[in-house]
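Model: You mentioned two targets. I'll fold them one after the other.
Researcher: Yes, keep them separate.
Model: Target one:
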Amino acid sequence: MKKGRSMKRNVFLALMVAAPLAFAQAPAKDAAKPEPMKAAAKPMAEKPAAKKAVNPKRLEDARHCLEKQNNTDIIKCSEEYL
């Protein structure tokens, strides 16, 4: 074999052996446990959600608008359902 090819293979094999060792992490024995939420730290006050005016036509079928003569009329008709 050529010297360059065997050198590449040796480097590759060395990386294949070393990679799992480099990424493996032993569990920390003295890992600090997260402190429970302190009583002084209160969650932010929830603001009431601003309700939008619900369009009663929102769930209705607007396909009849497609029977209009031109695009402008179709758009005007379908905007009622948004």
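Model: Target two:
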Amino acid sequence: MTEDERQWAINRIKAKRAFWVHLVVYATVNAFLVFIWAVTSSDGFWPIWPMLGWGIGVAAHGASVLAGPSTISEEQIDRELRARHG
């Protein structure tokens, strides 16, 4: 395994982790927006607009990566490299 391949695998694993952080932040912020809407009893359900707009970004991010565990092991790096090479 070359150093470039190893770095590629590490970057891929980090991208998968970043997606989960993105998803958690999305859910937390939007839950807070729904709470604000519920407390202020506004007429229309306005939180749908940021949910839809940001949701498109989260979906695109999720489509590009899969979830991964919290540590990077040699086995994960090897798995990513095997997936890259077929």
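Researcher: Noted. Anything on target two?
Model: The chain has a mean pLDDT of 86.
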